[in-house]
Amino acid sequence: MTTRTLLFPLLSWLLCLCILTACERLGLSKDRNESASRMESSDKKEKSKGPVAVAHIEPAKAAATQPSWGNPTGTVTFTQMGPKVKVVADLTGLPPGKHGFHIHEKGDLSSADLMSTGGHFNPGGHPHGGPTTSAVHEGDLGNIVADNNGTAHLDLTVDDISIATGRPNDILNRSVIVHAKPDDLSSQPSGNAGARIAGGLIEPAKK
């Protein structure tokens, strides 16, 4: 057997080993880059997350004499995300269908009909409309929709309110109100959404 014959398998084996090593290094590098990218994205998300506020929704006191209002309970969470605020609501016990859903100017929930919460939160003095309409009440969150079991979920991001900033559009110590009827998103001054069947005070979330 010649030296050339012996060298050929050895060189082939070394070449395969080099290729496998290079591929392994490329794979590790890719995994590291992907991991670093995920961590960077997560860090950016956390850094953009600001104050969090929560409203614990309870039935209006008058609901005890109004069976059609149901027994609404749940939470509405507001999270400052950079210049915008993410609104997530999870409610149960609602009459099925659409219900006007707004931030009201006062946090006073003492009256049985919740009229003590005042009108829609509207520091900018805009007309009433829907959350995707330009220049509307800062408190206009549109409608929340309950299924046949009375369960409702809302996930909405808005850019005209703030949390714990001290600005005129700061929503702390105001209230979230759920109405008996759908908000038609156009009638002035409040969308013809009917009685206030439930509400909650917007407070800083407990850490």
List the helices and strands and how they pair.
Layout: H1 3-48, E1 49-59, E2 73-81, E3 84-92, E4 97-104, E5 140-146, E6 152-158, E7 175-179, E8 196-204
Antiparallel strand pairs: 1-2, 1-8, 2-3, 3-6, 4-5, 4-7, 7-8
SS content category: alpha+beta
Number of helices: 1
Measured between the Cα atoms of the first and last residue, the distance is 79 Å
Strand/helix succession: HEEEEEEEE
Spatial strand order of the main sheet: 5-4-7-8-1-2-3-6
The CATH architecture can be named as: Sandwich
Helix proportion of residues, in percent? 10-25%
Rg computed from alpha carbons, rounded to a whole number of angstroms? 28 Å
Low-confidence stretches: 41-47
The CATH class turns out to be Mainly Beta
Number of domains: 1
DSSP summary, beta strand count: 8
Average pLDDT, rounded to a whole number, is 86
* CATH homology superfamily name: Superoxide dismutase, copper/zinc binding domain
- Percent strand equals 25-35%
Description of the molecule:
This protein has 207 residues and is of the alpha+beta class. It has a single domain, classed as Superoxide dismutase, copper/zinc binding domain (Immunoglobulin-like), CATH 2.60.40. 22% of the residues lie in helices and 31% in strands. Strands 5-4-7-8-1-2-3-6 form an 8-stranded antiparallel β-sheet. It is globular, with a radius of gyration of 28 Å. The termini are far apart. About 3% of the residues have low confidence.
